[in-house]
Amino acid sequence: MLTQAAAVILYNPQAVPMAAMIAAQLNGAAVRFEASSDVPSVRVACEATGEELDGMASALRYVARSGKALYGSTALEACQIDSLLDFIDTQFVPGPGFEAASAALNAYLLSRTYLAGREISIADLAAWQKLVSNSQSRRARSVNRHLDRWCKNIEIVPIVAETFNTYADAKSKKGKTAHEKSKNVKGDAGDPFAIALPNAVDGKVVTRFPPEPSGYLHIGHAKAALLNQEIASRYHGKLLMRFDDTNPSKEKHEYVDSIIADTKKLGLKTEEITYTSDYIPLIEDLAERMIKAGMLYADDTPVEQMREERMHGVESQRRNRSVEETMAIWEQMKAGTEEGFKNCLRVKMDMSNPNKALRDPVCYRCNATPHQRHGEKYKAYPTYDFACPFVDSYEGVTHALRTSEYKDREEQFYRMLKFQQQVWPELPDVVIWDYARLSFMYTVLSKRKLTWFVEEGIVTGWDDPRMPTVQGVLRRGMQVPALREFMLMQGASKNVTYQSWDKIWTMNKKVIDPVCPRHTGVEVEDVVRVTIAGVVDETVEVPKHVKNPDVGMKQQIRTGTAIIDQADAALLEDGMEITLMAWGNIIVDKVHRNADGSKVERVDATLHLEGDFKKTKLKVTWLADTDKNVPVTLKHYGFLLTKTKLEEDEVFEDYVNRNSEKIIKTVGDLNMRDLRQGDVIQLERRGYYIVDSEASSPEGLVLFDIPDGKMKTMVM
């Protein structure tokens, strides 16, 4: 048993025992704290006896028993605290059970100020640290008001706030309250970026965004780019951008240009832009070193046979080729000879490993396609799996952030780099951090599948407004601030979820609604003319946005004949009083319908400006019947897939929505003649739109609908 002799509490810098530190100060315990990377978390060591105990609970109990407080005032309270510590240590932890544990604590705190007794105890401190160190904290506190109230009560204790400011998540800076997150490294417990990035040193973290120029950036890439930038920024490090361009069969200069343009739109601030292909001379040198070290071998096994052998863990007959033979074939590969094209280079890794990614992966193969940067300079190209660890390390990348779909290739990355370090000792280590890829309902994000949509003519190109590419969603009306905010909200979570498009478009609506001007459009098909008695023709100025005068004014033509939609006319009845929006009331004198009553042909009405618009049930959009109206083509879009989520065994081509575009011919008010490409407007009672082509263009004025966040409007 530990005695009351002086003790030291050792802790890993990535898991600072704030609760124990607070307890020691509250209780005046004779204990000191030392950071040590040699301990997994927290360890109590008695300096006099050499005895040790592991775990936060042990540290808290030791500190509490070294004084007279924090362990309850009665034996019953002490037992309660012990029981609570066990619960906190085993159940109040990050993961799927955290919500239930939070709810249980919330119910327990219904009529309690503290977890045990009438004063703060080590149980409160233990639970508080678990809560503020958990990325699920924000939601837990938002849905459990008693838990939130209790937490706030703990945080008003001066020593709690002070300790949090100094040590929160082992990275926070001084001078901020417990409610203010440290933006320097990781943020608070509710921050989606509150991660313990392994081996991260403030000021020295280097991340990279490595797009392959085989297509346009999609929104999954946008998340990756912004995530890498955010992590680098929080650690006061830097972000590199590198094109992984060693597969000339799929790559185009067009894609390089589009990716650079998109990253600029997203506000990506990169230290520099590099190209893996520019490192090919170094990678060739690396390959030769590894061949001479017996790590690589040339293999001319047919592709299908090689795939089958790797599947069943069967070694290639070429695995034991001599260094000399492999070097000779390697020279043939670089020269692009017939013999060279028959072969590839493979890494002698582990053919018996259950992880098939380790079964002698290919690291070099020939390709006769001219490279988009280097033309026909090279005939053999490194694979991504071979080049990436080397170039990451060579460029000084400290942390490679990758989506969790590549989790099975993580060990391959580390092994490949270890092999490379054996022949190139100067190469530093690189840490992989995996996070959940971004997935959306009714959407595919595979470049291969997106390419199919383009090549099959289902869409007009990579920037089609139905495409989940950065250019596609921006052309559809997504605003960069909304896109950035949504992506950063996803954070670095490892939880794989399918996002609904309504969330991101709802955020977009909040950006555009306060500032976009209002206009009016009337459908051309079956348009209804309303003859209004008592009208003096005039042109007046009205606000473009009733709630925001800064948007400016627009002209409105008022004449004795107005046009309205057939759908609105169908609701009219003789004697009804209605409101013409942004004008005033009229009395419907007579509704003239066709023979079978299915359509309204015209309407007679009388101006009634003294009428109260608040009392009318029907508010109608309208335009003066004038040649100053502007022809407008409205294009509405649905999803490219008819199914919410495709299973792994389902063929996506079977669920393609081939009727995802709807065209509506309309006329708009005269002010719309001045709209410019990219302008965002709202058509009253129709929705939000973005200008894709101007009135003066050969196509005329074309508007794309911008989803407003209501899923039903996006499904066709």
Strand order of the main beta sheet, please? 16-29-30-31-27-28-17
Question: Can you tell me the CATH class of the largest domain?
Answer: Alpha Beta
Q: Give the radius of gyration.
A: 33 Å
Q: Care to count the β-strands? A: 31
Structure class: alpha/beta
Number of discrete domains? 4
- The helix content, as a percent range, equals 25-40%
CATH topology of the largest domain, by name, is Rossmann fold
Gross morphology is: flat
Average pLDDT, rounded to a whole number, is 89
What does the oligomeric state look like here? Answer: single chain
Number of helices: 21
Main sheet?
7 strands, mixed
CATH homologous superfamily caption of the largest domain: HUPs
CATH architecture of the largest domain: 3-Layer(aba) Sandwich
**Which strand-content bin applies to the residues?**
15-25%
Write up this protein.
With 716 residues, the chain is of the alpha/beta class. It folds into four domains: 7-170, Glutathione S-transferase Yfyf (Class Pi), Chain A, domain 2, CATH 1.20.1050; 206-435, 3-Layer(aba) Sandwich (Rossmann fold), CATH 3.40.50; 442-525 and 626-716, Ribosomal Protein L25, Chain P, CATH 2.40.240; 528-564 and 566-620, Ribosomal Protein L25, Chain P (Beta Barrel), CATH 2.40.240.10. It has 21 helices and 31 strands. A seven-stranded mixed β-sheet has the order 16-29-30-31-27-28-17. The chain has a seven-stranded mixed β-sheet with strand order 25-22-23-24-18-21-26. The protein is flat and about 100 Å long.
